[in-house]
Structure of Serine hydrolase domain-containing protein:
Amino acid sequence: MAQTAVQGQCDPAFAAVRDVFEQHFADGLELGAAVAVYAGDRKVVDLWGGVADRRTGRAWRADTPCFAFSCTKALTATAALLLAERGAYDVDGPVTAWWPEFGAHGKERTTAAHLLSHQAGLPAFARPVTAEEAADPAAMAAELAAQEPEWTPGEGHGYHALTYGWLAGEIVRRLSGRTVGAFVKEEFAGGLDLWIGAPDDVIERGARMTARRRGPAPDGGRRAAPGPAGDALLLERLPKAAADPASRLNRAVGNPHPGKGGFNNPVVLRAGWPGAGMMTTAAGMAAFYRDLAAGRILRPDTLREAVRTRVQGPDLTMLQETAFGLGFMRPASSFRVPAAARASAFGHGGAGGSIGLGDAEAGLALAYLPNLMGDGLVGDLRAARLVEAAYRCLG
């Protein structure tokens, strides 16, 4: 725990980001972490510090990759959207046009847009799935195609915490013949420290995720307040759902089970679950958002349509306000951004506190990765403070 000095580079104009990052370590809110920010094509923040592995005391280094949980979804969605841009399928057309088996149990009117915006009604698997089984994307997609939806697709939205990857990812697998991890590397992330399905050498030098044991909570002991949609019952309903193994929340986030070692399990890290399986550095993920916001991955019109809010309001899984475009989170209580960012910021958070964010209008890209996990699935206040500081530095 001695390796807490923050290292790296920070433009003086973005010193507020460094101040917030250092304060989190000083307050005991971090074990190890990294944050990176681009202003246009200029990398203005690239900081890291602390311990990558609590068991050994191994220090976090400039090239230490970290598991990014649901930040993965933004890259899976980008891969699917790139195929739509190339004319491989119609985002608003029926899934059965390219995945006939998906029409079982009344799902024949489901569109690709429903898959990409958490409206498919398949937030959880109907049976327990092991980490070993989850390494087969074709088998996982077939399981979901055969299931009955929990609500009529398109008539509600609920966070598909893990199943999202095998639904949106099936667009990529069927229409490109490649896994999401291979497509991402070959099409737009080849030069980045970013893997959806990490090789063993990357796993070996990666940060090890650690659950908080004692001391201050990473969010400072505060949880995100209900959003403007006004869910007054949130504080009552969420603890009940979290305590109920049969709740939709627990079924969505806990199956497949990652097995021994949790999300440090090499079986999971090698498999690269397309909904929550990416390992990356903060600099690598920020560079992805830099390129995305600059129009180097998707055309600007494709990106504008992708980040247009498709659904917003009470989430049938998360029991709080969420907002989604086609694969990207939009500002809500689950994706906290300052007022200056609410019109144009997009991205995705991850369990434990990670976040990736882009803003084409502001020319900003940011990524933050901690290995000391917060208590929530999304909306960690450490990330929110860093995002707020970055926008403040933009003026």
Observations:
- The CA atoms of residues 19 and 389 lie 9 Å apart.
- The two ends are 36 Å apart (CA to CA).
